[in-house]
Structures are given as structure tokens and as C-alpha cells.
Amino acid sequence: MGGGEPEDVPLSAVAVTLTLGTGAVDAASVIRLGGVFSSVMTGNLVVFGNAAGTGKVESLVGAGLALAGYAVGVAAGTGIARWVSAQVAGMLAALGAELLVLVLFAVGWLAGGERHVLLVLAASAMGLQSAAMRALGGRLAVSTTYLTGTLTGVISALLAPGLGVARLRDLAILTSLVAGAAAGTVTIFMVPAALPVIPLVTVVTAVAMTALAIRLRRTPARDAS
User: Fold this and answer.
1) Chain mean position to CA 109
2) What is the pLDDT of residues 148-205, one digit of tens each?
3) Most C-beta atoms within 10 A of its C-beta, which of 11, 54, 182, 184?
4) What is the dihedral of CA 194, 199, 203, 208, to 10 degrees?
5) pTM: predicted TM-score of the whole model, two decimal places
6) Are 15 and 142 a contacting pair, CB within 8 Å?
7) How many C-beta atoms lie closer than 10 Å to residue 67's C-beta?
């Protein structure tokens, strides 16, 4: 299929889709995996500092493992993307690695695996996703995991006339995070075994949308030749 070009990526659709999975995974981490986050590392840093100051060993371990898992995911995803070289191909490769980690997470979740192991897998998956989106570079490096800057941009834009296309996309991403967290929470309490399906489907969908966009953009060129 080739690496594609950054402009081939249906960025808004991919980002909104991936963020749905982020919300679901974070909800699972908060509810079932020790009250820490899989993607919001600034929050985990505060939890880690608080636990260190109060001597709450369990919170200290949970936040530390989440931070470590996320760091490993970012490092692995960045390395994969750089090794592949092409921006879009690098993104897809990192998302492929995330998919593998999410499969491991799903197996562990269904088997009732040790929650610290599941937390590391979840955080690693979010780190891989973060690296995947950063691989696009420049204005296309949209976050689907750490979203404080996205929220800041949207609030600031509300004071200006018109949100603009980029801010409308950011607003959709923030809405998607809430929707994913809500869906994940309901799933955990109603059909807990189905929780891993949400992030798995979102990553597969994001990859499929990107691959389809590349194929559709190349088809006219082939027909013309």
C-alpha cells in the first residue's frame, strides 16, 4: 500500500475515533485498575506526589506503574515510527503495535489478570497511540490522549469570533473523550467482559479509515495513467 502522505489521513475522523477508545480505557483504569489513569500522565504525577507525601503505597505503585507503562509505550511507538520513516506509515505501524498490546490487555482482562499488569498494558497502549499521532508531525500531530492543551485551545477560541475548523475538531475530540468514558463506565458495570472491545474497535477503525483514504486518493492517479 505504501506509506501515504500526511494529507491522506482523515485526521478529524481518526482523532475522534481513537479518543473514544482513550476514554473507555481511562474509565477502566480509574474504576478497576487502582484509581489512576492510562493516558493522563499529569494527573498520575500528582497522584504519585500525593502518595509519596502521605505514604499511600498502593497509590504510589499504581501511579508509578502507569507512568512507566506509558513511557515505554511512547518510547516504543516513537522508535517504530522513526524506523519506518514515512509519517503515515509510521503512524500506522505504531497503531499496529498498540493493537497488539490491546489484544494482550483484552486477554488479561477476560482472564481476570493481575490489575497491575493490566494497568501497565493499558498505559503502554496509550503511550503507543500518543507516539502514533505525533508521528504525523507539525499541524497534524493532534493528541488523542493528553487533552488539557486541547481544552485550553477550545476555551480560548470561544472568546474569538467563530471556532474555526481546527477548534471544531478539538471540541469533537473532547466530546469523544467524555462519550468514550461514559461508554466504558456503562460497559464495565453492565457487561464488563465487553470493555476491551471498545478500544480494539476504535484502533482498527482508525487504521481502516486511513488505509481507505490512501487508496481512494491514489485511485484517480492510477486511472489517469
Assistant:
1) 18
2) 888 888 888 877 766 667 778 899 999 999 999 999 999 999 999 999 999 999 999 9
3) 184
4) 30
5) 0.91
6) yes
7) 19
